[in-house]
Amino acid sequence: MVKERLYAADCVSAIAEFGADVVLSGNALPHLQNWIRIPLQQSGIAFVAWIQDSYGSGISAVLARKLGPIGHLLAYPFRAAERRLISESNASVFISEDFAESFRRAGVRPRPEAWHVVENWAVIASLPVRPKENSWTIAAGLAGKKVLLYAGILGLKHNPELLVQLARSFRERSNVTVAVITEGRGRDHLERRRSELGLENLRLLDFQPFELLPDVIAAGDVLIAMLEKEAGMYAVPSKVLTYLCARRALLLSMPRSNLAARTVLTNEMGIVVEPDDKAGFIRAAWRLLDEPATAELFADRARRYAESAFDISAIGSHFEEILSTAVPSGRSRRAA
User: Fold this and answer.
1) Would the CATH topology of 2-121+312-326 be identical to that of 124-309?
2) Which has the least CB within 10 A, 25, 111, 154, 208?
3) What is the pLDDT of residues 240-280, one digit of tens each?
4) 124-309 is classed in which CATH architecture?
């Protein structure tokens, strides 16, 4: 807590020294953002909250799963801080209408004109389509293999055991590899289970430099994303957007109601299976590998969707408008 306070104070000082008119803030716990927001607004600097996750709902769900009803009570300070952040910021940007609606239902009632929905995107200019057989694939020992690829964090919102069972189902097919690029607790679970079950087809790799990302995701014939049932309400996995740029078929284990799942289903870019349907998830993986024409059709639609939806000029103009209108009247609105 002391370090968070010091961090917030350093942020406020740096922003004041810069002379900002408006600040766009996200990806930090709500109470920390409030500690930054309040002194900035007091000095006349506008604060726009970028809601990438519903922290209060997420923490409440995790604590309730671990501790039962008392978990909801323990999570109350986080929910309260998040509601205050949204209601008292000059504007709030939600990455999905679902998030905005969940806060409306929770009783958060800021000015309607201060709420905006801008779905996330991937930087498609940095994610060209790369051939499957590339230098990274060869160096990683994945050349000549059919690859089911998961890349990213494996945290409380994910079920790493699903990847274990996927590898187990393909253990008799020597040309199929389940490749997982991750670190941390989820990686530890996979290491242990790989050893217990003797899953030589489960390849575990460390996080890779960003500049290698196009080659890394090109290694997969099928790209995997996961989200546990309760997480579908408060998270939208951004890795799905990156995957779309790779021109590969997607396999998602997450609630169909989630924005990422709806996007994939609506545009027919892959297969979505509910998180508790492990058998269906494995069947879908087999289908995508055994029906290359189907996978190719999904892949083509994915890249075409990314090219049309991730227009940074249009997105940038939208954000400029939001930031400009958030600045208090009378304060300088510099073009920069």
Assistant:
1) yes
2) 111
3) 999 999 999 999 999 999 999 999 999 999 999 999 999 99
4) 3-Layer(aba) Sandwich (3.40)
